[in-house]
Design brief:
mainly alpha; 12 helices; transmembrane helix; TraX family protein; single chain; TraX
Amino acid sequence: MIQKGFNSFQIKIIALVLMVFDHIHYTFVGVLPIPMWFTILGRLSAPLFIFATANGMRYTRNPVKYLMRLWAGSVFMIFGNTLIESYFPLPNGGAIMNNIFSTLFIICLIIFSIQRISICRKENRPFLQYIFLMLVPVFSSIIIFMTISNPDLFFIGKWIMTFVPSIVFCEGGFVLVGLGVGLYLCNQDKKKIGIFYFLLSLLLFVMGYNPEVGVESMFLHNIQWYMVFALPFMLLYNKQKGRGMKYFFYGFYPAHIYILAILANIIF
């Protein structure tokens, strides 16, 4: 029976296509006339991936493996970004810092902790360890701040940033992490999702106002609020998994970023 709406696989494919537009803009802007709407379309991508990932934590049979895959992807991206940027720097001067895996890992770590705390409370068991686990990305941020500016301790902060994702330094920071946890806590209630997501987008829209630039700043400079247009896809989610191909997404993400960087370096 054909289900109406979009399943998780279809939402991730939509997010993937929009992501490619965004990364083409980031890689080639300044050396090719890439239109602004490429990156505006990209504002929808991360929220859709986050939406699918948060739902994945609701259904996965092995959340620990789920977390370990995201952690491994995060570590790989940090080493991969450093390597590619060293040998194939972007001609427009942009830094290769993409690592959505770190953001997804932190979101899922917090969700996992929430799930375990809920189970422990029902079974009247201690859950302090899961509160600590939930706060690990915060602790890593504090340590990084304390060490990164000290030449003698810089390497400590660098290694912690590599192996213990930070809620401050991950891609999207507090906003995307909060988005992921908030979507999970909406418990697939479409009304709650709609209200939460719209209000967050509205907040980003208002925060984008720059009095020196005027209203234009809210539409052309601080563009993260355009993510609001991902909401219809979320509301049309039919709670079906669809095709698997999980490793395709894990592989495609770094591959397309590095291929674009190498092409830009060779051509220009």
